[in-house]
Write a structure and sequence with these properties.
Radius of gyration of chain A: 21 Å
Number of strands of chain A: 12
CATH architecture of the largest domain in chain B: 3-Layer(aba) Sandwich
Oligomer: heterodimer
Order of helices and strands of chain A: EHEHEHEHEHEEHEHHEEHEE
Shape of chain A: elongated
Helix content of chain B: 25-40%
Strand order of the largest sheet of chain A: 3-2-4-5-1-6-7
Number of domains of chain B: 2
CATH superfamily of the largest domain in chain B: P-loop containing nucleotide triphosphate hydrolases
Strand content of chain A: 15-25%
Number of strands of chain B: 12
Structural class of chain A: alpha/beta
Largest sheet of chain B: 12 strands, mixed
Distance between the termini of chain B: 42 Å
CATH superfamily of the largest domain in chain A: P-loop containing nucleotide triphosphate hydrolases
Largest sheet of chain A: 7 strands, mixed
Strand order of the largest sheet of chain B: 3-2-4-5-1-6-7-8-9-10-11-12
Shape of chain B: elongated
Helix content of chain A: 25-40%
Number of helices of chain A: 9
Number of helices of chain B: 9
CATH class of the largest domain in chain B: Alpha Beta
CATH architecture of the largest domain in chain A: 3-Layer(aba) Sandwich
Strand content of chain B: 25-35%
Distance between the termini of chain A: 44 Å
Chain lengths: 313, 260
């Protein structure tokens, strides 16, 4: 048996049937309630829903719904805020049954696995026990092997054991989340700026170019804000020239921002939630970027540092 | 004779490239306005005429015609001197006048403030626009605060700020390039308001992380003394950012009709 007094735990549950799912998650949450802990079910319409139904007679169970379109980094913030609120309300700890399903946008898969890895670092300081149920009938063996590397423990209806394949978040993100070249980058860019010096002019050129892309206005506006933040970083901390290349393809926009400085190499950059209290102190730019576009990759090649942003309709 | 309002006396915080200056004068001349520019004692100051020439201003013709006229910088701060020159220009048929300021000699803060007051008065009485340029890299934060306090309107390459009573109207984009200026203007405006400082951001296209940080700091300072910062009519993209950042309890938003 695990308790929140044990500190942080993040278990993966591989299940093949609803009965298997409920056999672990229902007693897990009930034990938490019995010990004065908050018990939360994240319900995005996947496997969270049967858990909520099975515990419908438990008045203490909290159900947290989220927009299925939420980006992974935003969901991480939602988890953190929810945990902080529960603790502030007097809970001794927080138990969470996650909700894992096929991402609404298939291209989000890589970011969702990064989310699982970052979860271990961002929430490590909280008395949180989380179980993430992954349906073995829904995901490929390769996908499940990847997921297993991001959970410190494996739980079943009969046992809970350390995961020998677990990788620390930075290790996982550095070794297995290395960005592959995007085929779009071999094509002619829709917009090229050889030397960015003026952010106002950059925004206007992005506005003009992105107007022709087949994406929702909100996605385009958010993407523009994200590019401005990355360009700001390059101008402030990188080495000129700062170069922009933007592709606007069918239902997808991709932008690379390149400078000739050393860049940064913390794969967890931008995951930490900028709470209101420390908003004036902590770096905010990359935190915003992770929440304003679908994918954020950064890498050093030869003498330049590149940040790549992508959003897909 | 109606004035154009004190917010036509503005401070321009600029970088090394003086191209803006030539464009400002050229537009005025093309509009048929008269332009006064300062000449400093012992010839100090920027090589203005060279800049104008590079930006396509026919300096010789404009000077010969009287459209472009030098004025000793010492006259700028002498009560009535500039007003006399402006009245004379208007009597000669110019629809309005532009005055490029830049005193070029060190003044005490009191004398400086008095001089800026004369320029404010000029814009309030006559159809005149006064531009006071400052090279940003030469100014400390304290100097920017002091100078913005003397000017009802401040311009930066990408941001225009106008103070009107308890409201600051912002136009353009807020990013790291103008965060010092924004901080200075909010500091001045906040000091003058007992209860609420309103920022009209309806014409702001983008606020970057640096800008949000300044707004939150300003809001927290106001809250320490029981006052509030209220953003008026943020565009939908900015409203989403406020929600994303969790700022809805730190920074209030409102429409012109009421607070939300």
């Amino acid at each position: 048996m695990i308790t929140c007094s044990d500190g942080f735990a993040h278990d993966v549950l591989f299940f093949g049937s609803t009965d298997d799912l409920l056999a672990v998650t229902v007693p897990f949450l009930r034990r938490g309630l019995a010990q004065g802990e908050a018990a939360l079910v994240f319900d995005a319409g996947h496997n969270g829903t049967p858990i909520v139904q099975a515990l419908s007679n438990e008045p203490g169970i909290g159900r947290v719904t989220r927009d299925a379109h939420q980006r992974p980094a935003r969901t991480l913030s939602l988890f953190q805020h929810t945990v902080e609120e529960a603790l502030a309300s007097g809970a001794r700890g927080v138990r969470i049954a996650g909700d894992v399903g096929l991402p609404v946008r298939p291209s989000h898969w890589a970011e969702w696995v990064r989310f699982e890895a970052a979860f271990n670092d961002v929430l490590a300081g909280y008395p949180v026990q989380a179980v993430c149920p992954w349906n073995t009938r829904q995901f490929s063996d390769e996908a499940l092997r990847t997921v297993q590397r991001t959970h410190p423990s494996i739980i079943t209806a009969h046992s809970r054991r350390p995961n020998p394949d677990y990788l620390q978040p930075r290790d996982y993100l550095s070794r297995f989340a290395v960005p592959a070249p995007d085929p779009l980058e071999t094509t002619e860019p829709t917009l090229t700026i050889a030397d960015v010096t003026d952010l106002d002019l950059l925004r206007r050129r992005l506005d003009d170019t992105l107007t022709g892309c087949v994406l929702q206005l909100e996605d385009i506006e958010d993407f523009t804000f994200a590019v401005i933040e990355v360009a700001t970083n390059a101008l402030q901390h990188g080495r000129p020239p700062v170069q922009i290349r933007l592709w606007c393809a069918d239902r997808k926009i991709l932008c690379t921002v390149r400078d000739h400085g050393p860049g940064f190499d913390d794969p967890l950059a931008g995951y930490y939630t900028a709470g209101r209290a420390d908003l004036t102190q902590r770096p905010l730019g990359l935190w915003l970027v992770r929440r304003l576009c679908d994918h954020l990759d950064f890498f050093t090649r030869a003498d330049h540092f590149t940040v790549r942003l992508t959003t897909t309709a | 004779m109606a004035g154009v309002g004190t917010d036509h006396h503005f401070m321009l915080l600029h970088g090394r490239d003086p191209a803006w200056l030539g464009d400002w004068v050229r537009h005025a001349l093309q509009a048929g306005e008269k332009v006064f520019y300062p000449v400093h004692p012992e010839g100090s100051g920027p090589p203005l005429l060279e800049v104008l020439d590079r930006r396509g201003v026919d300096v010789t013709a404009a000077t010969a015609h009287g459209d472009l006229q030098a004025m000793p910088s010492t006259q700028y701060c002498r009560p009535g001197a500039l007003a006399l020159a402006v009245r004379d220009a208007l009597q000669h048929g110019y629809p309005s006048v532009r005055v490029l300021a830049g005193i070029g000699v060190p003044l005490s803060p009191e004398a400086y403030a008095a001089c800026e007051g004369i320029l404010n008065d000029l814009c309030g009485r006559y159809p005149a626009i006064v531009l006071c340029p400052y090279l940003e890299e030469e100014l400390t934060d304290e100097q920017i605060r002091r100078f913005t306090a003397w000017h009802p309107r401040t311009l930066h390459q990408s941001l225009d700020l106008r103070r009107r009573d308890r409201t600051v109207v912002l136009t353009g984009q807020i990013d790291y390039s103008n965060e010092r200026l924004l901080r200075a203007v909010l500091h001045t405006a906040a000091a003058a308001t007992p209860s609420a400082l309103y920022l009209d951001v309806s014409a702001i296209a983008l606020i970057s992380a640096a800008g949000w940080r300044v707004l939150v700091q300003s809001s927290l300072h106001l809250r320490e003394r029981g006052a509030r910062l209220i953003l008026i009519s943020p565009r939908p993209a900015l409203a989403r950012m406020i929600k994303l950042l969790g700022l809805d309890i730190v920074v209030r938003t409102a429409t012109p009709g009421g607070e939300s």
